[in-house]
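Predict both folds.
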Amino acid sequence: MTDDALYWLFSTIAQTLGAIVGVIGMLTVYKLQLIANNIRQRMEGSVESRKVYYPDTFFSITPEEFVESWFNLREPDSVQSDHSDSLDIVAALLNRLLANRKEIISGFLYFLIPNLSFIVLSILGLLHCNSLASWGVGIAAFTGIAMFYTFCSTIYLCYSLTKS
């Protein structure tokens, strides 16, 4: 490979991956906000209905604490079972939303680390195009393997973002 070809290759890789990280990062934040709003709405409705029976329990509680403590609390005898069943469904839904949020965050880290690493390597490659040109096929093979890995991590994150 020539100096110019490597220069354009590394420049294109850095710019393209930077744009992909920005767009997918925006989509990830949007999805996390949707999940947070859904959790907040479920919490507000459930906490308000539980304050009648346990007024000191749910004032400053996180969704994780709510799901954890929900199954430890027992309904008073005066509460009908259909009310308890609906709140059990809300607790199960909150548990699923929290698991979905955790999966998206771990998927984003799995996406972000290789992409940012490859952006940094591309920028360093820009600085040393003259010396890397003598590597020939080796630098092309390394670039192909790194691009495949970043592609796989991007597909994984997109899949976890589209799951409901």
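Second protein follows, with its predicted structure tokens after the sequence.
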Amino acid sequence: MLFRFLFRRFCAIFSAMTHLFQNRRNFQLLAALLVIFGATLRVPGLGRALEYDEVWTLEHYVSAPLSVIFTDLAVPNNHLLHSLLAKLSISVFGAGVITLRLPAFLAGIAVLLLSIPVTLRLTRSRGVSLLVLAMLALNIPTLLYAQSARGYEIQFALLLAFAWGLLSLTDAHGRKSPWPAVFGSAAAAVGGAIASLSTPVAPLHDVALFGLQSLSALYTDDELDKLLQAGVTPVQLSGGRMCALRILTTRATAEGPEGESFRSLNATLVTDELLRDLRAALAARFRAAQNSTLTRTAIRSAVLLVLQDYRARGWLSAFGALRVYADAGDASLCRVEFTYSIPAGLHRIALSAQMTG
């Protein structure tokens, strides 16, 4: 009964204030006050002691190199974008609890700001937009996520940004711009094709791209060669279905000189699988081991087994120069180094014929 009474009183007060929202300046002022109010509520908890998941994120991902952030997915505690932003925040503003939580806090403010255009697009009502904004400002879960060094608040902000982008495809006159949908559909189709691969060395040029219906332009062979050299993925119509001519990346270097090692996406996929399997194999066997000669010999054998398995599957064409040694500056650090090569896929066949006689 008390809740019903309070709810009715709230609705009556809200209805009486509806006329205030008709004025754009009043609406903007109230929205700004609610955003400031919500941001203020999220400030006090930023300096509290770190929780277990936050400590894990700091020690295992934020403090690690960028290559670890984007390849260590053995446990679901690594929120990639948050780990990257937290690392950037600490590198710019210095180490601290608040700087570690700064990306989540800013994402919390972004959630409040993005809720305004999304609700306005959905309902065309300023009153509803302010009501949703007030509820988000006072919502306990979103408030706590904005005070925690985790990626949930960033995910919420990106979800609202994505919804706003979809709603913005239609302008005030109901006309739609096709290009965002075209590029988004192509990216989603390529991503779905990559996710459907049974092995990381499966050819990526003959995978159907579902959701694409037609082509917008035709390119000559010379133009296609230039696109492929630049790391662009052209799409073609083959056998009545849409597929990629060759799926590439723009990555041309990995902390070294420029090259073509990472141009093929298969190289990246195999590398991701290899590093993940190596980390899982080593973590399962050497959690409480000492950095002794005997342990390093066992580590070498474990790494060798994984590499041999990958070569037997045909995922690696060769490997060598396997070294396992103790770091000279840190006695607790064991370094594992090796070289490997990935078999090149057959993507194109160039025919040259000469008629004689």
